[in-house]
TrEMBL record:
This is 2-Methylaconitate cis-trans-isomerase PrpF (2-methyl citrate pathway). Pfam families: PrpF. Belongs to the PrpF family. It comes from Mycobacterium rhizamassiliense. It comes from the Bacteria.
Amino acid sequence: MISLRTMMMRGGTSSGVYLLKSDIDETGVDPDVLLSVILGSLNRAQIDRLGGDGATTSKVAIVGPSTRPDCDVDYLFAQVDLGTLWVDWNLTCGNLLAGVASFAIERGLVLKAHPATAVRVHVVNSGAAVTVSVGSGGVTGRSAPVELMFDNFCGGRTGKLFPTGRPVDHLGDVAITAIDAGVCAVIAEAREFGLTGGESPQQLNSDTRLLDRLERLRLRAAVAMGLGDSRGYVLPKVMLVSESHRADLRSRYFVPDGCNDGHAVAGAVCLATAAAVSDTVAGKLLGRPAGIRPLLLEDATGTVSVDINRIGSGDLKIGASVRSMARKLFDGYVFADMHREPCLIGDTAEAGVT
């Protein structure tokens, strides 16, 4: 039986498990196996687990002292596949990133400052560095507004902002922008698929013909982006964009085999970055120079504001800032029986379990 001090937090539109790297290392267990047990992989009933039943609720943030001199902490993200014993370490998650500063403060990795604590985070998966600022009043409370300031986040996976070398490509009769900005994504206009762009995620997810067409497009784009065969992988993501009456652009975000209710933080930054380049699919739809003011993006749950600015010469020298939130849900211990399914006890009333 292995016990690990564990925190669960909501970050942006996701929730996940936060662990100290040192605690994982001390177990001596392969992290792929350990995380699969903690989140309840292969348990079809999903009753003894910390993972949810979807991609946005089966995530892990592993945090420790930074291995880089210009950062305060390292953040390693893991996406756990609940249907197998496989853990994907090749992704990033801006939503869980929103909770890293609060977690680091509570675990004593950084000192709390007033009126806000700015934590420089090394995103290990991509090599990016992000400044996460959290108000001191919200660190130990139920929720905290968080500002995420990204720099040098473009080309983290492929080395290029536009992996194909072009801002627009045509795959069959569909114009796309293949982009690597915080996350690798394929952006196309919703009308290319006979959609208005205002359809609900439920409507889109019930259209199996649409989902099949998007998957075939995604796989072709992945090869063109140098990502290889992406069957079974969540990258690249797909965004279908359209005009908005409430914001600058409207988007539906696929993760990738179904439409998510809202944008992931990285997805919103990626789309805003694409819109900042006038000859991309998003830039042409926007129809005005981006960067004059923050870009307001509409998804199925509301809007998110992203500020894009160039911090130097070259396509990769782009900065972005976005506001998110983090909420502590649980702080306690997870008990992982490596021969049986895990169970959970908690030491905070807020978790609602005993």
